[in-house]
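Ticket #4471: structure output looks truncated?

Reporter: J.K.
Steps to reproduce: submitted the chain below (512 residues) through the standard prediction queue, then opened the result file.
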Amino acid sequence: MSAGRSSTNKYFVDEPFSDLPELPNVIEGGLREGARRSWHSFYQRRNIVVILLVVAYVAWFVHLNLESYYTYGEPPFDLSIFDQGMWLISHFHVPFVTIMGRNLFGDHASFVLYLFAPFFRLFPEPQGLLVLQTLLLAAPAIPIYILARKYIKSTVIATALVAIYLLSPLLQQGNLDQFHPEAFQVLIMSLAIYAAIESKSALLIVMVALSLMVKEDAVLLVVPLGVWVAARRDRRLGLSIVVGSVVWAMIDNWLIIPGILGSSSFYSSYLPFGGVTGIISTLFHRPGQLFSYLGSQGRPFYLWQIASTVGFVFLFSPEIAAIGVLLVVENEISNFGYMHQILYQYSIVLAPILALGVLYAIAQQSTLWRRNALAIVALTGAVWTCTLWGYAPFSDNSIQTQTVAPSSIGALNTLEKKIPPNAVVSAWYPLVSHVDNRSQIYVWPTPFYAEDWGRGTDTGARLRVASQVQYLLLPVPLTPGTDPNVFKRISSDFRLVKSRGGFALYEKTASP
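Returned output as attached by the reporter:
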């Protein structure tokens, strides 16, 4: 490891790599060309470990995702929502997702999915979404490595930072949590922070625009980024980012989503105490109640988990890591328990922000031993937390693959192939993501007995579209948890097509 030069400006000095070999000026002609080739070969060898880390991450998590999917262990609800939604978009249909009973963009304003529609048309299966997600999550290793090489001037520490990022349980848990558009946000925000640090205004503007297209709460990431740009790079650009993102968030949340959904956001109830004004009122008039609330449901442990993934190293100079602070506040204060757990997509974008925060903190250190010490602490935290909560080969966790008995998988595949393309289907929950490339697909017992559908007001009702269902794909026999009474009421309307491996395919009989 080379000591490099100490930074004379603590806010990222743009200097050449001090640990790369320089070409001697005395070499001329063929000797100079030979030296260039030697330098290029040396440079490539330095990058090989990072390349191997990224390839290993992609290969391992593609393997885990596909193994979970093919063994019916992948929780299918959100995966099916986006798979059916992308199928509808790529076939120029209105993206009304029958799995959840809402328009895809009334649920979340994830318009970035339109940009992905051509790719999905080439790979129109859930497997394509799962592979894409892994590639999106691996890609931030590139800007992290480039920035670390430039500002820390140590290939070893730069490689360690890539490892810290890829080992993050925030990243790994999110990767195996079905598919979510937040995967785009992970790469987009990484490139946005890279562009901000490097003063690449055009790239920054593009990334900010894309970030705001990922989800309606992206403003919580973009505003802190804009504040940093205004303070450290370009005041006018930074303030424009802040104002523009707030205006877009207002349009998203007050006009677009209500206009599509016909009411306020389905998730507006996730804020406690009646919303933002209620939270502020509680803070000033009943602060003890608010602090008691923030100490419940494992919220302090959630904060500790997040920070420990990088050994708390970002605290030595936290301004880059602070870009994620509003998102953490949102997750902490939400009354939806999933949001303050690292098991789900709500925390995934914090992984690159924390890694870049560690990079920034290390780059501010003026001595080699302090840089090395912080890198070791951060890497230790990453390995330890990955062991506890991640999905690396050495982690304590393992994927779920036992939803369907292995002996039934072949039989299920046979039954699924018997369903005509675009037939209207109601299927048992774990099977939905395998048959959802169609305009109407329902999670049994919906639509005969609505569950988790629409805005929840139809729960228990028989929906009008029930008469349109042509096929049922269900386990046999139906256990108490799979609504056997609902099937009894409609069984006379369906005939058994085939039964194999504990599952049955039923077809609606012709009307007399």
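Triage note (M.O.): checked the attachment and the full token line is present. The longest helix spans residues 29-70.
Status: closed, working as intended.
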